[in-house]
Amino acid sequence: MKTFVDVRPFVGGKILSNTNVSVDEGKIVAIGDQRLGDIVDGKGALCVAGFIEIHSHGGWGKDCMEASYEAIDTIAKYQLSTGITSFYPTTLTASMEDTDKAIDNIRQYAPISHGARILGVHMEGPYLALKSAGAHPPKLIVAPTEQNTEVVWKNLDMVKRITIAPDRECAAQFTKKAVHSGVQVSLGHDDSIDDEILACVHNGASTVTHEYNCTSKPSRRGNPKKHLGLTEMGLICDELVCEVIADDRHVPNILFGMIYKIKGADHICLVSDSLSVAGESEGEYYIGSGESKQRIAIEDGVAVLPDLNTYAGSVTPISKMVKNLLGMKLPVEDILTMGTRGPAKVMGLTDRGDIQVGMLADFNLMTDELDIIDTYLGGERVNKATLR
């Protein structure tokens, strides 16, 4: 047992002053004036639940689609090095066989992770719209028909989140079955209109995948009537929480300010959508593997697809996004909520995402400028120098 004294824990959306947090056997056991076991002097630092990443494709040169122990081990360690204590490895559109192999690889590694805790898999694709493929290889994109979704149903022990385009054939029916099977459904990479979006929302879809990036805009379908797209529906639909890549590039700060004003912190979830090149120096690389392999470059701190002249996923971790938002003068409590309590709520997690008695002792000690001082996993300090 140990007690972190003189910390300011972020509890239930509020920052407490000069409070002690005691941990034992990997969990938080008390919050208050107690001094139990060994003493760790927090020196007035913020004590914030570890960030939860619900959308990440890789890091430190490794991709979640690489079906190897080394790849997922490297990615888990990369996540932990940035203050992420739990994450959902995210697949890229690929063949069903390659997707199945990637999921199985993550399944084998998850129980013995030497980095951030793995909570399951986020499948981003292959059930997307061709017009909004982004970095996903168009030739491997398919509709979520019964035949094409077998890989989901056989891997329900691992698939906990999936992105689909509402305009694809069977999207609404798939959403209903997935939600009833315990899978959180997110809408994105689409060419949909409001009616199609609402059909999925009514069947349980609850998030938008990276708002303003490959999300549809107002359009017409066969007649002069104009419909709203997913971008607008994500903003006005109370049932939908918006993923946002708050790196001032994928979503410029002025645009983030608008999203925040409309949705509020409780309906925004920060995500990195990090690629294999996250944590690497500038230069040219490749993402994906096999048929889904694509050329990518890091230029001026952002990942781009040179062949398509567009941004790919980001190379900015959530820990840097919160500092960026602090520079916008947003309330610290709201900023922290979007990286901790928010994603935990989206995924129905009740044992992490906050500093509460009974929850995992996974947290970051942080400065007032939201720089991470130390990361603790199960109450034990992470030696980040040994992660890579």
Describe the structure in your own words:
The protein is α/β, with parallel strands linked by helices and 388 residues long. It folds into two domains: 2-48 and 356-383, Urease, subunit C, domain 1 (Roll), CATH 2.30.40; 51-346, TIM Barrel (Alpha-Beta Barrel), CATH 3.20.20. It has helices at 69-81, 96-109, 150-153, 171-180, 194-202, 230-236, 253-263, 318-326, 332-339, 341-346, and strands spanning 2-11, 14-15, 19-24, 27-32, 38-41, 46-49, 51-56, 58-59, 62-63, 84-91, 117-118, 121-124, 159-164, 184-187, 207-208, 219-220, 226-227, 241-244, 268-270, 283-287, 294-299, 302-305, 310-311, 363-366, 372-377, 380-381. Strands 1, 2, 3, 4, 5, 6, 24, 25 and 26 form a nine-stranded mixed β-sheet that branches. Strands 7, 10, 11, 12, 13, 14, 15, 18 and 19 form a nine-stranded parallel β-sheet that branches. Strand 3 (19-24) and strand 4 form a beta hairpin. The longest helix has 14 residues, at 96-109. The two termini are 29 Å apart.
Topology:
Layout (H helix, E strand, L loop, with lengths): L1 E10 L2 E2 L3 E6 L2 E6 L5 E4 L4 E4 L1 E6 L1 E2 L2 E2 L5 H13 L2 E8 L4 H14 L7 E2 L2 E4 L25 H4 L5 E6 L6 H10 L3 E4 L6 H9 L4 E2 L10 E2 L5 E2 L2 H7 L4 E4 L8 H11 L4 E3 L12 E5 L6 E6 L2 E4 L4 E2 L6 H9 L5 H8 L1 H6 L16 E4 L5 E6 L2 E2 L7
Helix pairs in contact: 4-5, 8-9
Keywords:
alpha/beta; TIM Barrel; nine-stranded mixed β-sheet; 388 residues; 26 strands; globular; 23% helix; Urease, subunit C, domain 1; nine-stranded parallel β-sheet; 2 domains
